[in-house]
Design brief:
Length: 414
Amino acid sequence: MSAVIETKSTYDVAAVRRDFPILARDVRGKRLVYLDNAATTQKPRQVIDRLVRYYSEENSNVHRGVHYLSELATLEYENARAYIRRFLNARDEKEIVFTRGTTESINLVAQTWGRANVREGDEILISAIEHHSNIVPWQMLCAEKQASLRIIPVFDNGELDLDAYERMLNPRVKLVAVGHASNALGTINPLRRIIGAAHANGSLVLVDGAQGVPHLTVDLQALDCDFYAFSGHKVYGPTGIGVLYGKQELLEAMPPWQGGGDMILSVSFEKTTYNALPYKFEAGTPNIAGAIGLAAALQYVASIGLDAIAAYEHELLVYAAARLQEIEGLRLIGTARGKAAVISFVLEGVHPHDIGTVLDQEGIAVRTGHHCAQPLMMRFNVPATGRASFGLYNTREEADALVAGLHKVIEVFR
Ligand code: 7TS
């Protein structure tokens, strides 16, 4: 018994890496060092194989035919939903709506719940460190409804000013929309306090979980948020699939968004009645393979262990941040106490774009730019940053390669 526990508690990164075929390839004549996981993660063969099996043996449309393959595809699609519900500890499968990803999930809430419930003079609170996809849908809604978008301020270390947040709460605040973890700074937001204060004020909470699910255990019933959005492709699953979780009573009361097949019970030219949850929000043929692939990705993550992944990534983050800080003229942007494995930095005298270009020549993939968080860049007075974002397969050697690459950048540009 103890032997089993010991093998489980030792994080075998070499074995994990063998699951990801792409990590064995060269880029520009160098072994790929992939540090752009906040943009999208690589896929393990468990996910790739699952997609191949689906298209080779199970492909058909769902919720339609009585024929064998349609029933099989429907079963697998709904099994995927059931697994995702368990993974997130949502109360009911009706609360798991498949979407294209985080962006579509947030737009769905803004366009349905938002248009039905937000009125002139109401307020929506977001934070200063949100991704554009948790800014722009609310701006669009507020413009349409003459409501106000108010911004929770952030301290210089990248932590939200929660006292200021609590002072901003008032009866006009209908919704608080915040990220679980910041894609540009890594800050993990203290959701329990944020959600508790919002609920005490009678406001709903939407969590942008795009950077939460890949790094943190998400227990939706314990968290008690009203909506939670995430993307499959950032958690080792396929692109084009994501989830909107919503509390059942809220989703029930929301009008549908897109109209079409599958979201109806009956249609006549006089009157259409809508389907039950979650299908009311899944118009048209869904991304069946994507949903099945996403469940396979979450199963893969669970097989390694969420706590083991979080502990491993944290150790890597601490190591990489310490090594990077040894580089002269390098400044970390975002030094919150609780951080996901994302490191943003600027290098004195070098434009971030040049950092990315030189690192690319070394086979090192990082993102440079504003990370779809332009207001955040303005707040921290930088036009852009370099960003290394780590995943469950990254290693200390790769962090060392990044440091060596940055020394090359300095040689070229200083
Ligand atoms: N919210 C956060 C916090 C994100 O990091 C992203 C994507 C999104 C929303 C949007 O997700 P999508 O799957 O709908 O596009 N972030 C990034 C990034 O950091 N680099 O590229 C995409």
